[in-house]
Batch of 2 targets.
Target 1
Amino acid sequence: MLSEFLLSELSRLRAASELPLHRQLYEALRRVMLEGYLQAGERLDSSRDLARGLGLSRNTVITALNQLTVEGYLVSRVGSGTYVSDNCPKAAPKPRARLAAQRPHLSRRGETLTSCYTADQLEVQPFTAGIPDFSAFPVALWQRLQNKHWRMSYPEMLDYSGAGGHAPLRRAVADYLRVFRSVQLDADQVIITAGTQQSIALCAQLLADHGDTLWIEDPAYWGAIKALTAGGLKLHPVAVDGEGMVPGAANEAAPPRLIYVTPSHQYPTGAVMSLARRRLLLATARRHGAWILEDDYDSEFRFSGPPVSSLAGLDKDERVLYMGTFSKVLYPGLKLGYLVVPKSLIAAFRQAHYDLNRPGQMPLQAALSEFIEMGHFTAALRKSRVSYALRRQSLLEGLKPCLGEHAFISGAEQGLHLCVRLPPTLDDQALARRIAEHGLLVRPLSGYCLQRRDARGLVIGYGYAPLAGIMQGAPVLARLIQEEIRRWKAGF
């Protein structure tokens, strides 16, 4: 890297100077040290290596290095090499104003994307201290499957995938969705993506133009807000109640091009969309010629009540694009998800996915398809359900003392988080900060809201929290909620 920098500097000097080569190299090296690219005590490449890298004679390099040594910039140690002197003079620091002026400015879109609805503020992680728990995942088996497919010689497995993903994996996904989510589909309709974020972005890019209106739940999933805002869509918030999104006459003034929903376990309230509301939403999409983006992010984990059919399973007009992820059952870093598109969109989505995203990870996809086909996915899911069910139950038991007239739980039937709903005038953000002072991490429900001001509560994740941590932390959480409700009642 030093040679590359020096080559650039020598090229600049040659264009503006008639100095001999050894003097040009001297000036270039001197600048490198004065401006801190080479720090005191750092060892330079040998004169032979520098000469080779710069395309100069060794005598030219030695002459420049000798002059810098005489002036105290370098020190030569016999048998060791040439180093930047500890007494090397430093250039005066550049004024801060000049540095600030050189910083590039973000676009308006960039400012929006980096200033609100950020993962570090809203991502549901363990409510108690601890690291993500992947103990239910068979790591050794997974490593063997990956190694197997890396050892096998498939030239096409090292290339991009223009077919929407590894065919056996697409078939496995189709079989799974037909049985467990009542989605009627062919494997050709499945596109393997790098997760839900990429699926959402692909839908926004292909199905809507810049400035088109998208109906989104309020409160909403922060990741969808980011992906859809980046796509240039105009977000129209639609309130959520106990039965999911509530599209009404007030929303008809802003007809949608796209509708984004999480009907099986609304993120973050946990509401399950009723059958009547699902039919209403499908009729609304049909009337407006809109597309529904159904994010079924954690449907694998249902702990009570009968399973509810997916929107895609009820769709007769091919207006629903269904998306899911493997991250919840396996591990987040896997970064593999799937998107099911109507048959009329298969060719367009495959081509756009290939052109825009250059999808790959074929050996990883092959390992996952075999993992599913051999029954390991089902086994891992079964084990995870048992583990998460215990944590969920422990959390519910611990929260009981704070529940009553002014606090109730929503969304506990499914998923890896639940929501403690609080009075609409209680400051849930201040409560979350107070809880954080006790070493517990929860998210204020109001932080997920786009427009409404009446949604207050705490979003509490238990998927990564160790059982012992939940048993210890849940009573503390309940006590702090009770204290906040008493303060709220006293000032009401």
Target 2
Amino acid sequence: MEINETFSQYSDWLYTTTVAIYVVALLFSLFEQAFGAKGRLAAERSRQKVLVGAGGPDTELEDGDVPAKPEPRPEAGRPERIGRMGAALLVLGAILQLTAIVLRGLAVHRAPWGNMYEYGMAVTFIAVVAWLIVIKKFPVRHLTGFFLTPVVILMFINGTMLYTVAAPVVPALQSYWLSIHVSAAIIGSGVFLVPGVASVLYLFRTAHDKDAARFAKFGPKLPAAEVLDRIAYRATIVAFPIFTFGVLCGAVWAEAAWGRFWGWDPKETVAFIAWVVYAAYLHSRATSGWRGTRAAVINVVGFAVTIFNLFFVNLVTAGLHSYAGVN
């Protein structure tokens, strides 16, 4: 089918706009992270005073005593307001990025992940959506800057080094397995970005807890290590079965296309290594009770292998997956 150049151009413009919006959201979040810690601590102290004044668990009221009137909730300071603006920009960027993906699909009349540029665009979108869900469930909005940093870097590399003009896919990719196998790999890889960042921050947090003097300026601004560990574990539980399904579908597609389920292609091999690392992470937690630093290190290794497979394998090595639009 003929490529719709108009939709393709709009998709490229929206992608560039999304990167710019994410950069602004990143700066807003870093501002909140740097200057909002005092505001969060003040709000926590005020909350504790309200509980005490209202006859909470930290105080005992004698007969005839009247509980003190709760103090009004303190207004959010400037860093917190800027942090909320950053979160709103993150939502706007996700909407624009989704629109760019849809327009790319309409332009090429197929699933919009037939080359590495489209794949990277979809992976980063899933990662942003996953993070938006996390900050909805956990009070970690101020950590958005740490999460957006790798996202912006990946999107910049994707839009420059990996950019591919809209075009039909090669015959090897003209299969319904493109939608099934690649979409599962996209969702799994995108969600894996969240536990990767959370585990890195966990290591910094525990380092501060062990050596507060050395990490005095960084550790206190992070949430408790248990919170970061919980985020990493729950996100990995969500991503791992989806990623596993994608690997299995890839093997079935390989048998249908090339006559074998496994051929030790570089991308297949590194994907399998990533699967083993994440399986080891979940297995060690379930059976050996591994938590804390050891589990976080395994998760970081899995994240590193995933990024390595996403970019380095396609840029440097040659294999059966080299048709993904990268020279």
